[in-house]
Write a structure and sequence with these properties.
With 255 residues, this protein is α/β, with parallel strands linked by helices. The chain folds into two domains: 163 residues, Spore Coat Polysaccharide Biosynthesis Protein SpsA, Chain A; 84 residues, no CATH class. It is built from seven helices and 13 strands. The strands form three sheets. Strands 3-2-1-4-9-6-12 form a seven-stranded mixed β-sheet, with helices on both faces. It has a four-stranded mixed β-sheet with strand order 5-13-7-8. A two-stranded antiparallel ribbon has the order 10-11.
Length: 255
């Protein structure tokens, strides 16, 4: 089978070259750039990728647009801050040489945090459906945590090799990501999905998230990075619930 690797990007000049190099095995590479102001497009074009410039419309829509531009039905979706590790490349090449029985494949994602691979807690294995037949599924159009929605009756399997993920630069970056992006988008998505909250839920959200990440999912095995991740998980849970409360109050005042 032939595979098109697709990457969405915005101001990723520091990451895009290594991401592209890690999918050099693909039969085609497509980059959808969201009007970057740095050298992302130039670097991608120099690597031989097909580059499309498109105004940002959200993660799911950008990724769906990228898949729609591909020449091949089999799509491998990678983010610019991710890399395909050798073991995963070997698995995918073996699939390319055969006739895949499944319609999609979930891949574990190994994040690097505080210069350490995180193998426990909420962050691993963090399986992502990234290799798929585009005739069997589409990206679900949501505000946050975009994911593929496969057609009824589709079959998926798990691969063992990892995608390496460099999502967080440092603690201050992590804090900004939660406050400026993840918590506000999560709260808005919760409103859209009909969720509600209460003072009790707001009070318990943070401690519950910490206990789940650090104790129940073994985050303590990752040392100090595991503790920091669990603490930020608690902050995110608290913040999205208080933001949800504010949004609900605002909506109630308008009626």
């Amino acid at each position: 089978m032939k595979i098109s690797a697709v990457i969405i990007a915005f101001n990723e000049q520091k990451n895009i070259a290594e991401a592209l190099e890690s999918v050099a095995w693909a039969d085609e590479i497509i980059v959808v750039d969201s009007e970057s102001s740095d050298r992302t497009r130039e670097i991608a074009e120099a690597s031989g990728a097909k580059v499309f410039n498109r105004k940002w419309e959200g993660f799911a829509r950008q990724k769906q647009f990228a898949a729609d531009q591909a020449a091949n039905d089999w799509i491998f979706s990678l983010d610019a801050d991710e890399r395909v590790l050798p073991a995963l490349r070997k698995e995918i090449l073996a699939l390319k040489d055969g006739d895949p029985f499944y319609d999609g494949y979930k891949i574990p994602r190994l994040s690097i945090y505080m210069d350490r691979p995180i193998r426990h807690g909420d962050w691993y294995p963090d399986r992502q459906l990234r290799l798929f037949n585009r005739n069997k599924g589409r990206w679900k159009d949501v505000l946050i945590h975009e994911s593929l929605e496969m057609d009824d009756g589709s079959k998926t399997d798990n691969l063992a090799g990892d995608i390496l993920h460099y999502s967080v630069e440092n603690a201050s970056h992590h804090h900004r990501m939660i406050g400026e992006r993840y918590a506000p988008l999560a709260a808005r998505q919760m409103v859209d999905d009909g969720h509600r909250t209460s003072p009790l839920k707001i009070a318990l959200a943070g401690p519950a998230a910490f206990v789940r990440s650090y104790f129940l999912k073994g985050g303590f095995l990752d040392g100090l990075p595991g503790f920091v991740i669990a603490t930020f998980a608690a902050h995110h849970a608290f913040l999205k619930h208080i933001l949800l409360w504010e949004l609900l109050q605002t909506d109630r005042d308008k009626t």
